[in-house]
Amino acid sequence: MALTFCCLTFAVDPASLQDFCVADSNSQVAVKLNGFACKNPAWVQANDFSFSGLHNPGNTGNPFGSAITPVTVAQIPALNTLGISLVRIDYAPWGVVVPHYHPRSLEVGFVTSNPDNRLISKTLQKGDVFVFPVGLVHFQRNVGHMNAVTISGLNSQNPGVITIGNAVFGSKPDISTDILAKAFQVDKNIVQQIQGKF
C-alpha cells in the first residue's frame, strides 16, 4: 500500500521586505517589478525623500484655467513601490480640470459605469474632502470668484492621466470620423470640427 500526499503552500508578505526602494531612474535593469529598479541603499540621499515647491501656485493662465503640480515617483524617487502620490491643483475662477480618469468652493463629480452612467456631484467648501472611486471618469471646477487650491491623494506612485477629449478627439492618428460620429450620434462634420481643436 502506497501513501501519497501533496502539500501546496503560498506565502505572501504584503508589507515591504526592505526599509525603502528609492527609484533608480538611470538603471539599465530591464525587468522592473512594481515600479523602478531600486537605487543602491548606500547611494540614497535625503533629497530622494523630499520635494520642494508644493507651496508655489501653478500657472493657471491657460485655456483650462488650472495647473497641476504632480508629486509622483518622478519627483520623489522614494515613493517607488509605495503605491501613493499626490498632486496640487490650482484653479483660476471658473477654472476646470477636464473630465479624465487615473485619480477636489469646488464643484466635483464622477460618472458611474455603464449602464447607469449616473453623475454624482457636489459643491465643496473650504476644508471639505471628496473621494473619487478608482477608474471612474471625474472632473473638478472652481465655481468661486477667487483662486482655489486642492491637494489630491492618489493610490498609485505614477497615476498617469487620460483626458477624455484629448484621447478621443486628439489621438495620433485620428480615430476615424465614421467611428466617432456613430459613437456620439452626430454628423461627421461636427466630429471634424471638434478634432480640429485638438
TrEMBL record:
Chain sites annotated for binding Mn(2+): 100, 102, 107, 138
UniProt keyword list: Apoplast, Disulfide bond, Glycoprotein, Manganese, Metal-binding, Secreted, Signal
SMART domains, A to Z: Cupin_1
Chain residues that bind oxalate: 102, 107
GO cellular component terms given for this protein: apoplast
Subcellular location: Secreted, Extracellular space, Apoplast
Gene3D superfamilies assigned to the protein according to its UniProt record, in alphabetical order: Jelly Rolls (2.60.120.10)
Chief location bin: secreted
Cysteine disulfide links: 21-38
Signal peptide range: 1-17
Pfam families: Cupin_1
Gene Ontology MF: a single term: manganese ion binding
Job description of the protein: May play a role in plant defense. Probably has no oxalate oxidase activity even if the active site is conserved.
Similarity annotation: Belongs to the germin family.
Designated name of the protein: Cupin type-1 domain-containing protein
